[in-house]
Amino acid sequence: MTGVRILVLGNANVDLVLGEIDGWPRIGTEIRVERAEMRAGGSAGNSALALAGMGVPHRFIASTGSDPNGAWLRGAFDAASCDWIDDDGATTLTVGIVHKGGDRAFLTTPGHLDTARVEELVARLPDAPLGPAFALVSGGFLMPGIRAGTDDLLDALTARGWRTAIDPGWPPEGWQEETLRLMGGWLARADVALLNEVEAQAIAGKEGTAPAAELLAARLAPGRILVIKQGEKGAGAWQGGRNFHAAAPKVRVIDTVGAGDTFNAGFLAALAKGAGPAAALAKGVQAASRAVSTSPRRYGP
To answer: What pLDDT score does 1 carry?
Structure first.
């Protein structure tokens, strides 16, 4: 994988996507849905799939369980781009319920994500190539071992020459004192922070994307980038006192599962090619819009 400029680390799991539903059913009842799709997923997994779909060389380091779901999951990725870690036990399964209008909710089993260890990721880290190269750490809040060692992982990546990007997702217990403290440490280390607008407002303790972005961007070291993903409104980036925005095209949304992860792939791939924040935002929004409006998913033009 010499010369690969995108490294992805984090969670891969099996996604079972069902929908649409119009409100939650009453307990004890049964409803039919028109669509079901079993696919590879996880925050980091979605980014790796998008990179493969866009033809972007990358390296994906992640674990699966030792059950049949684990074997199926590995088979869904580009084998030449993956470095798999074997975890003895069941593979994590996420059920994504798509609600009318495209919004979704997730139900996730513990499985192999509960046993993932940051030491195994660090042991497999390659050195970064010369020139711009980015390592994305994604989905850490769902993996206790990775969550506890993310500071060490970011430091190890920096020591090997990678510029780091983080998208930890939503903590299952919500934004409590401990999770806010952890996030503060990660923001202080990462070169790129990739958040959605709900996460940004919760972390900043501010209502509204603009006030949250202003507060969070002020915490970043010079030259670092804050990205806030805003769904159908596109995405914004803040760097060095400047802000940028890319609007999203109007598309027919099939489901939004993994939209932000696909954005991450497009955005970082553009940065790794030397693009500035404005052009990278446009690439990320383009990739995400394509993904949410196609079935089976497509990522390129």
So the answer is: 54
